[in-house]
């Protein structure tokens, strides 16, 4: 899918922007989308706690990266400068607030995510997932583009059944939030991580399909 797509949902138009977490250049993609869409409201694939965190981030903020995050960033650096927190999300929050555009987090809140994680991932599965970083460190993804790398990374990290269930639930939650905003009318920009964007688009297309 292209980075910015217009989709009809619930009688409204959703401008779905897929973004790569970590790349500094993605901030420019977000700014361009704001200029092109001129949204009345913005949906973002973050929890409300994550949005609050970005809004209240101290000037001397130092990100605490997991080993997974570190390995992901090392691979992504082949395609451009990398930063944390994700510049695509920082730019989205800053632009929406500066332009006084309502910004709606549509991902699972922290409590819901924790509850889902505990239900979906067993103890042995959690142990296997936490000890696989050495395999990922040695793996060569053979990616020609940043988009290809991100999708291959996502597949490798979330190929366990419990993790796939969590990401499916996230996609459903994000799509539901976007669909609800679309039904209210106005120009809607939805900023969604590349890893879930295609799935979110598929769910939105199904939600808008005519009943038989």
Outline of this structure?
The protein is of the alpha/beta class. It is built from 10 helices and 5 strands.
How do the helices and strands line up, and which of them pair or pack?
Layout: E1 4-9, E2 12-19, H1 26-37, E3 41-44, H2 48-55, H3 67-76, H4 87-98, E4 103-105, H5 110-120, H6 123-130, H7 133-138, H8 146-157, H9 161-182, E5 188-193, H10 194-207
Parallel strand pairs: 2-5, 3-4, 3-5
Antiparallel strand pairs: 1-2
Helix pairs in contact: 1-4, 5-9, 9-10
Give the low-confidence spans.
none
Gyration radius from CA atoms, angstroms: 17 Å
Largest sheet entry: 5 strands, mixed
- Rounded average pLDDT: 89
State the distance separating the first and last CA atoms.
27 Å
Structural class: alpha/beta
Number of strands: 5
**Coarse shape:** globular
What order do the strands of the largest sheet run in, or round the barrel if closed? 1-2-5-3-4
Tell me the β content.
5-15%
**DSSP helix fraction:** 40-55%
H/E series: EEHEHHHEHHHHHEH
Domain module tally: 1
Please report the number of helical segments. 10
What does this structure look like?
Helix 1 (26-37) packs parallel to helix 4 (87-98), helix 5 runs antiparallel to helix 9 (161-182) and helix 9 packs across helix 10. This protein has a 5-stranded mixed β-sheet, sandwiched between helices. The radius of gyration is 17 Å and the shape is globular. It starts with a strand and ends in a 5-residue tail after the last helix. The chain is built from 10 helices and 5 strands, in the order ββαβαααβαααααβα. The chain has one domain. Strand 1 and strand 2 (12-19) form a beta hairpin. With 212 residues, the chain is of the alpha/beta class.
């Amino acid at each position: 899918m292209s980075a910015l797509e217009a989709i009809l949902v619930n009688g409204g138009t959703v401008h779905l922007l897929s973004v790569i977490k970590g790349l500094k250049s993605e901030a420019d993609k977000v700014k361009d989308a704001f200029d092109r869409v001129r949204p009345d409201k913005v949906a973002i694939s973050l929890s409300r706690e994550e949005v609050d965190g970005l809004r209240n981030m101290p000037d001397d903020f130092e990100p605490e990266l997991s080993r997974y995050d570190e390995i992901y960033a090392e691979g992504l650096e082949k395609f451009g400068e990398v930063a944390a927190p994700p510049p695509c999300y920082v730019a989205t929050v800053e632009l929406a607030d500066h332009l006084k555009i309502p910004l709606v987090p549509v991902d699972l809140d922290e409590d819901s995510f924790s509850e889902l994680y505990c239900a979906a991932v067993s103890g042995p599965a959690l142990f296997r997932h936490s000890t696989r970083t050495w395999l990922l460190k040695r793996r060569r993804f053979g990616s020609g583009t940043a988009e290809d790398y991100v999708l291959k990374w996502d597949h490798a990290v979330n190929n366990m059944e419990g993790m796939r269930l969590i990401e499916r639930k996230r996609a459903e939650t994000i799509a539901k939030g976007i669909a609800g905003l679309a039904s209210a009318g106005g120009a809607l920009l939805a900023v969604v991580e590349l890893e879930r964007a295609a799935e979110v688009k598929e769910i939105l297309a199904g939600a808008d399909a005519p009943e038989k």
